[in-house]
Write a structure and sequence with these properties.
The protein is α+β, with helices and mostly antiparallel strands. The protein contains 8 helices and 13 strands. The protein has helices at 39-46, 65-70, 104-171, 176-205, 219-233, 253-270, 301-305, 326-336; strands at 3-9, 14-21, 32-33, 50-52, 74-81, 87-95, 214-216, 239-244, 249-251, 277-283, 287-295, 340-346, 349-357. Helix 3 runs antiparallel to helix 4 (176-205) and helix 6 (253-270) packs antiparallel against helix 8. It is elongated. The N and C termini lie far apart (72 Å).
Length: 360
């Protein structure tokens, strides 16, 4: 047979995937034929081989439009099936001269090669799936290692502060009033870490973030307080706050304050030092919106898309920049309020937007 091809055949296309051309038929891999002009289209429908020794001598195909269009007299084509027996395409061959292809040997050979093509297609898919799973597991293992290291660091720091405070009290009991507030803040930090871990567990177990929404009348004041607290803790940070929230917002105010704290913490930690951090809270008739913007190093689109995943840190972040749960928790809190959390990076500025319905 002068021309043979492996063809991908769908209900819309006939595409050559591989070919052997010794008659100048002119069809290369990637080339297409009009589907309706091919016998392969009929094979796609009835899933049976078509074998013709000589078109003029065939009562079924002597007047068929396909041999006349493509100028062949002998033809053989068998369907290629995937492992689930779904139709994929055909293995076909033509020649402008008659040929003896209507034999058990020719049919058997084509059937074996078609089965081999289907087997390799399945094997290729399994290989790609295995490689993807391996990359996912490797990435997950790496993030777990980073998470454990960050967790150990974040818990060790307040524990060391508490241990240091106890040592001071043991040596000089009269110093208790001075070090006790520091120890209390360290205990609060450990409590926050535990709450973050609980939030992570709830999200990954499918139970979802717990929220207790109410008609909050003073959400703007609560957000202003968390901004002031962050300014006091990080006097080097330039935080600009704008609030345009009039009237009640149906939300869990403690969780929304947690969102603001996490966004501010992220901006202070990863933003460009000395550049302003802009926080804006607004409420329309339909939704409450909280945005946080800060200058920072350029980020690839794939990194921006992954910011709300647990354990994730951009390539520009340091290994000691936390457990990587803050933005994940922001996203989960937004979902629990039937809202959204999005991120965008344009012209050196990273912006996070949390939007939730204003009313129940």
């Amino acid at each position: 047979m002068g021309f043979a091809a492996v063809a991908r055949v769908t209900d819309a296309q006939w595409v050559c995937c591989a070919s052997r051309d010794e008659i100048g038929f002119g069809l290369q891999p990637g080339g297409e034929l009009v589907l309706e002009t091919t016998l392969c289209n009929e094979i796609r429908q009835h899933h049976q081989p078509v074998v013709i020794d000589d078109v003029p001598a065939s009562p079924l195909y002597c007047e068929h439009h396909t041999p006349a269009r493509y100028g062949f007299r002998s033809y053989i084509s068998v369907p290629i099936f995937r492992g689930d027996r779904s139709f994929w395409g055909t293995l076909c061959a033509i020649d402008p001269k008659p040929a003896r292809v209507e034999t058990a040997e020719a049919r058997g050979m084509f059937r074996l090669f078609a089965d081999l093509v289907g087997f390799h297609l399945d094997a290729q898919d399994r290989l790609h799936a295995s490689e993807s799973a391996l990359r996912h597991e490797t990435d997950t293992a790496r993030r777990r290692e980073q998470f454990v290291a960050a967790l150990g660091h974040d818990i060790r720091t307040p524990l060391q502060a508490i241990a240091g405070g106890l040592a001071v009290i043991e040596r000089a009991p009269d110093q208790g009033a001075r070090v006790t507030p520091l120890m209390r803040r360290s205990l609060d930090r450990i409590g926050e870490l535990v709450e973050d871990l609980m939030d992570l567990a709830r999200g990954q177990l499918g139970t979802g973030m717990r929220v207790s929404p109410v008609h909050c009348e003073d959400l703007g004041q609560r957000l202003a307080r968390i901004v002031d607290e962050t300014r006091a803790a990080r006097p080097d940070a330039r935080i600009e706050f704008e609030c345009r929230v009039d009237g009640p917002v149906w939300c869990d105010p403690a969780r929304i304050v947690q969102v603001a704290a996490n966004l501010l913490g992220n901006a202070v930690t990863h933003g460009t030092p000395g550049q302003p951090i802009a926080v804006r809270a607004t409420a329309s008739a339909q939704a409450f919106e909280l945005t946080s913007s800060n200058a920072g190093p350029p980020m690839a689109a794939a990194e921006v898309a992954a910011l709300f995943k647990p354990y994730f840190r951009p390539a520009t972040s340091s290994k000691s920049s936390g457990m990587g749960l803050g933005l994940y928790i922001v996203s989960e809190i937004a979902k629990a309020h039937r809202g959204t959390a999005t991120a965008s990076a344009e012209r050196g500025e990273l912006t996070f937007t949390v939007r939730i319905p204003r009313h129940a």
